[in-house]
Amino acid sequence: MKKKWIIEDIEKLFKKPFLELMFEAQKIHRKNFDPNQIQISTLLSIKTGACPEDCKYCPQSARYKTYVKKERLLEMEQILKSAYQAKKSGSNRFCMGAAWKHPSERDMPYLEKIIQEVKKMGMETCMTLGSLTDTQAMKLAKAGLDFYNHNLDTSKNFYSKIITTRSYEDRLKTLEHVRNAGMKICSGGIIGLGEKKQDRMELLMQLANLQIAPESVPINMLVKIKGTPLEKNKEIDPFDFIRTIAVARIIMSNSYIRLSAGREKMNEQTQAMCFMAGANSIFYGCKLLTTSNPEEKKDFLLLKKLGLNMKKNNIQKGNHQESISLLEKLSKINNKKYYNAAKS
Ligand code: SF4
Description:
Order of helices and strands: HHEHEHEHEHHEEHEHEHEEEHEHH
Distance between the termini: 46 Å
Helix content: 40-55%
Structural class: alpha/beta
Radius of gyration: 19 Å
Number of strands: 12
Bound molecules: iron/sulfur cluster
């Protein structure tokens, strides 16, 4: 039977001397994963800005004045070009994010078409589109979506200090729909929102105690964006961040723990410690939705220095030639026509 984590267990882990915690996390990591392998995802914003939600950390919320310029849902050709590029750079998962409260019914056929086309390239697919109904989750799953990302962000108690336009229960409901539709869950949180240690513990406990823990758990370090209410938040101690990763690794032993936003601010040594603590997934590419990420070349050199190998695809290999001809075909098609055809 699946272990149910209680807060006392998690507190004990957080209180362990740092090196002991790291050792335990590394032991569990080695039992469940190849310690020298890392999963690489690339994230593309397919619809940017003007989001009606009020997440206080996010430059895409329409409520804050930030550098983000709003963009409409991207055309198929542009999405597939990015997916192809991501695959060529070594990514095995292509994640697509849209700044929405939830996808509209009108856009569903197009989203399904995007999933099908990216899958043809032989990549795993992930989307983050906001809340989903059970029917929408079923449709995305049927189109072949492998993962759905919907972060819990923080603890249930602290949540209302960060977001007021969508409830914690709504988020859990979406995760339930995703799971029931047979997709894998990507869900994690952000460290540095102003939360207490207790909130970090409760967030990890909530994730670990889901019926099945998320297959992918992004742990983000807050990126302080000018114009958002959290732009002046206190820096967090890297050791607290690494500790959170180690505890996530221990209590979600089979999940990929993703070192996510905020990596750009970390030096190589901190990133290496995060990998030592059990992080085994990163975003690769120079942009994370709308915030920057370490340049690919720098990442490549770091992985080389550490002897980390990129994980190969789980799904059937796509045919590169097929991907190229698909792109060529698409560039000849009038985008508008393609968009409309996809929607019909
Ligand atoms: S985090 Fe997502 S839902 Fe929240 S404001 Fe940003 S884009 Fe919208």
